[in-house]
Amino acid sequence: MTSILKYGTIDDKILEELRAIVGDENVFTEPHHRAIRASVPAPFPLHKWSEHTPDVVVLPGSTQEVSEVLKISNKYKIPVVPRGGATGLADGAMPLRKGIILDIKRMCEILEIDEVDRTVTVQPGINMQELNRVLEKLGLWFPDDPASYPVAVVGGRVGTGGWSLVGAFGGHVPDLVLSMEVVLPTGDIIRVGNGGGRKIRKSSVGYRLKDLFIGHQGTLGVVTEITLDVFPRPEVEFPAFFGYNSFEHAYENAFKMTTSGLRTLGAVVIFDEEKVEYLRRDDEAYIPQPKSIKSIIATVMYGTEAEVEGAKKRLFEIAEKDGAIYLGEELSEGDWASRHDRYALPLHGRRRSDWQVVPMTWHCEDAAINHSQLPYVRKRWHEIASRYIEQYDGVFDDWGMFMYSNPPFRPWGDYLTEIDIGINELALDEETWEAWVNMKREIAEVVIEVEGSISACHGGTREGDVEVCVRQELKDGQFELMKKIKKMLDPNNIMNPGKYMLDEAYQEG
Amino acid sequence: MVELLSYKKFYDEPLKKDEPVSEEITKDCYTVFACRHKFCREVCPVYQELRNESYTSYGFHAALLSVSRGIESLGNMKETITYCLECGACELRCPNTLFGGDFYKRRTTTVDLVRKIRRDLIAENEKPNNWGEVEKKIDQYKKYYNSSPEEIRQWAKDLEIPTTGDTILFVDYFTAFQETVTVRTAAQILMKAGVKFGVIERPGLTLGELYETNFDEWLAHAKETIEALKSAGAKTVIVVNPHEYVYLTREYPKYMGSLPFNVIFITEYVAKLIENKKIKLTTEVDIKATYHDPCALNKFSGIWESPRKIIESIPGLEYTDEDPVSQWYNCCGNGIASFKELHPELSYRIGTSRLRKAADLGVQYLLLGCPHCKDQLSEVQTKSKINVEPIHLLEIVAKAMGLEV
């Protein structure tokens, strides 16, 4: 197959036009400005850094500027990669065909707070912490709560179809977006919502086009304004952690918790045995537990005082009846409060042969897995990781698994299941990068085997995942339809080209 | 006091334009790059204004890593590396520092790295825009240094302070020649409390601009200062300027080992005097105020408690607190060294943001613990007309003591 498209080169004339749109001070061509925007937290092939370094960095300040930049890109056929907080784990903001990085973090205003109809309208570059600092003064709460809560921005959360830790209570990003202004690859500005309503939560009018612009990983346009649902701030947040003597023990109890019918449950999170062992070994923020505790369930409840008071009694009964041990207020409140810092440190990497510290980046491989399949997936994923660690000791490390209740507004049925892998990027070369990609592919194939989805919260756009996603997960006509939509909206394939293998829409033969 | 000393000796080896970056520096930069979660970005006062992640701890470390990989050349970083206040927020917020830095001896040290890169670039004759302003400031301070003893002590002309003593009030050239009110107030408070103290005749230059330009010259001045304090008989040195406090407690010991006297910051000393009833706060000061944590105190030295203790003991004062961890996000916009000379407009923007935050709390006064903050925010207030008056908390203490200053 050959591509029917050729990209233009960014020359001085195009740079002049870009500067005229956003101002000289918002266009950067020096290599380091571009190089630092080549990667996101997903493992990065440092040995191939230049291949992912964009040609120019542009920092727009308004919808109109975004539109003008896209018109120029479309005219000269220049790839554009939108970049939000750059905290994604699916390489959404990593350029595959160079071009323009459109860094939208300057667009960070709160445009309107509607206390009567309970919405907030924002620009895409604001993060959840900044937003909630303002909302909390009015007794309001935007409940999107990813691990990257203080750093990820709303635009990126929309572009990746983000998942919230407390989604069982407050829903996830796709459930919280009411309407959006989107700049299409041609530069046209449209608004999508529930029907034509800007602040309406349910409509039966038209196609559900809003959903098309959630989780597209920057392949269909750039969101420039978002109207979000806001909640009353809950009277009570009550975290409770329980200890178990095995993963199986925790797993059985998690079923009872998630199916208990308690509407206040915001999250049920299982820490598997490898995760508890890792935390015990290395995490300074973690309060160590006795050796008999092998697995943990973290729960959190939200609601009015009366609701939570009643619900927590019921939750403790469920836990204690199964022999779980309540781990106390200190761990429960402390660990829950530090959840946004619960990233593994680079210095937690270990070489297994001599147990020496090797700086590694943390990576979370995530999938949506049904409850019935968790033990099987857990066993297979650790086996896969062990095999690669054995072969490439000091390059990879297994930091255990978390399983988080996954559905919006209810905790039962399936889990965001993650295995945390440490990777020493300084040691990457062609061989070890290939090994990493193969490890990911194997991990993703287990998910297909159990009819899960290869990502609950990041996206399926990375090397290693993407073939499994496109060829296996989306094989029954979905990928074919995605290609048609992509080509219709983006005739010159300028928006984040290469992602989701959508280049194939423009190939012949 | 919180022990924050973290000295990476491998930073002493200069980076040179056409030579490879050492393996140790590469690993150091990688440890920040490997995190990539960018808490450092959000806490940065420069980022909060410009929203450009090139000018963050992640940006600086990743940029130097790109130099080590041959993607960028060092000289191209000369403007980028000036976009740092050296306020220290990023290195505190870094998970490597918070959760493992001391244990693994790999605390993130962005300020040291920025200072080093600036210095190494100047040595390579790579000067950023506006560099002339920095040179002018260094020249100005050299003039101060070469002034007569009478000129240097002009701020204390009628106070009759000896030049020796067990206890020395350390007065640097900024407070001796420019923001003189703070140090004069401090001296009067100490006198009224019955503290016997001296002021040395001629300290060396402590200037941050010199530290990040000409290390050898800066160190020679540092040695001169220590010698002068020693020969004056100092056993305790009270410091009024937080920037100087950082040099005396954190920077000088890196190169000279522990100093032969105790160093104490003025708010720690005054809080003790109040506690021991040596200072009596009798006059009501009927104002609504909040407090700005100076970067050099809060972020570098872990001193945030004593200023609050003092403020809370002022009769009549209605105090609204912003907690010190939230204040990691704040800076007056002056920065620790050359930031204001290089970026006057940006410095002003950061200052206005700080004053607006205080105004949002509905207070009349923003209390300060640093003469540089006072100089900067007074200028910003005059220009912006934001309705909050910056004032040093020692001036309020003096009022409550019934002192005319």
Topology diagram in text:
The complex is a heterodimer of chains A (509) and B (405).
Chain A: E1 2-3, H1 12-22, E2 27-28, H2 31-35, H3 49-52, E3 56-58, H4 63-76, E4 80-83, E5 100-103, E6 110-114, E7 119-122, H5 128-135, E8 140-141, H6 154-160, H7 167-170, H8 173-176, E9 177-183, E10 189-193, H9 209-212, E11 222-229, E12 231-232, E13 236-244, H10 247-258, E14 265-271, H11 273-282, E15 295-303, H12 305-321, E16 325-326, H13 328-337, E17 361-370, H14 374-391, E18 396-405, E19 414-423, H15 430-449, H16 466-473, H17 478-489, E20 507-508
Parallel strand pairs in A: 3-5, 4-5
Antiparallel strand pairs in A: 1-20, 2-3, 6-7, 7-11, 8-12, 9-10, 9-11, 13-15, 13-16, 14-15, 14-18, 17-19, 18-19
Helix pairs in contact in A: 1-4, 14-15, 15-16
Chain B: H1 23-33, H2 39-43, H3 45-50, H4 57-68, H5 89-93, H6 95-104, H7 110-123, H8 131-145, H9 149-152, E1 167-170, H10 173-177, H11 180-192, H12 208-211, H13 215-231, E2 236-239, H14 242-256, E3 262-265, H15 266-275, E4 288-291, H16 295-301, H17 305-312, E5 318-319, H18 339-342, H19 344-360, E6 365-368, H20 371-384, E7 389-392, H21 393-400
Parallel strand pairs in B: 1-2, 2-3, 4-5, 4-6, 6-7
